[in-house]
Amino acid sequence: ASTLGTQAAQTGRYFGTAVAAGKLGDGTYSTILDREFNSVTPENEMKWDATERTRGSFTFGPADQIVNRATARGQRVRGHTLVWHSQLPGWVSGITDANTLRGVMNNHITTVMNHYKGRIHSWDVVNEAFADGTGGQHRPSVFQNLLGDGFIEQAFRTARSADPAAKLCYNDYNIENWSAAKTQGVYRMVRDFKARGVPIDCVGFQAHFGTGGPPSDFQTTLANFAALGVDVQITELDIAQAPTTAYANTVRACMSVSRCTGITVWGIRDSDSWRAGENPLLFDRSGNKKPAFQSALTALGGT
Ligand code: G3I
Question: What is the ipTM of this complex?
Answer without folding.
Answer: 0.94
